[in-house]
Amino acid sequence: MNILFRVDSSFAIGTGHVMRCLALAEMLKEAGCAVYFAMRAGPGDLGDEVEHKGFPVLRLVYEGPVVQKIDAKRTIEVIRQQLPSLDWCIVDHYELDRCWEENVKAYVGRMMVIDDLANRSHECDILLDQNYYQHSQQRYHGLVPPGCRLLLGPQYMLLRPEFYEAKKFSNLRNGQVKRILLFFGGSDPTNETEKALHAFKELDVLDVEVDVVVGKANSNRFRVEQFCREMGFHYHCQIDYLAELMAKADFSLGAGGVSMWERCFLGLPSAVTIVAENQRRSTEDAAAYGAVWNIGWHADVKSADYADIIDRAVASREELKHMSRKALELVGSTKVYIVHPVVKALLEG
């Protein structure tokens, strides 16, 4: 079976879309599928990283803001030239919708969409939204064709193998904070990492270890590295052992989106900053469930707010134990599947 992912990453978009597609791509490759990626080249793209993982990347020319008809034309060109027999196209892109999908679907067997916005119509055979939402079953009503198969909720979570491995060593937290993890996504376009780092200067001396993770797409990573050196923090850039750091941590500051669910899966209590509009609803619903603390919209969050939340975490042992329990209850029960249900749905056609 031949499968093409259409997904992008950049300084502005971030890396979350690519990372969840890579998780699925690795499972499909293990199931015997031939997997390809079509990605726009541009500042902050992860094309080289995807190739390093062993997947061919068909690079689309960066032409400024996405125009769906042009993007569809470029995608069809690479399909016709390099992938004449394509069983599935999997698209994970907020700038693409039914307009793009109708054009491209004529050149592929079937179409799958990965989404979490539920704000536009799609022409697809499968739609995956792995997030937890209150009243999730109604979100895509009228946005997909009648025969579309909906895969909704954390039971369809796309996790890289290292998270299942880390799960073996990650237990319910005891609420004591000895190690803190900072990770606001691979690109961190709102520079929450530096805001959070400055919070530690405002605090009394804490007897904690701090791990700070950034991606190569983070344009402020060299300043962050210098800050970590001065403060004696552990600096990590573009790593493949994030799950291990999450399993070791007692508390985390981070963004919403994919990494929020990864933290929940490992039972890691965290305070979440909403750094993009598409993260707002899922962060609010996860906080209402008790699985995270919601700090709020990034523009309203200052270093002093991060200092306050760190102080609160250190002083709130029972709250953190409760949060860890609720996070595991919400997402952490996701099983290690012999065949992941998303892979099964694709193989079944």
Automatic annotation (TrEMBL):
GO MF annotation, one: glycosyltransferase activity
- Matching Gene3D superfamilies, A to Z? 3.40.50.11190, Glycogen Phosphorylase B
InterPro entries per UniProt? PseG
- Entry superkingdom: Bacteria
* Sorted UniProt keywords: Hydrolase, Membrane
Protein name as catalogued: UDP-2,4-diacetamido-2,4, 6-trideoxy-beta-L-altropyranose hydrolase
- Organism per entry: Geobacillus thermocatenulatus
Taxonomic lineage:
Bacteria, Bacillati, Bacillota, Bacilli, Bacillales
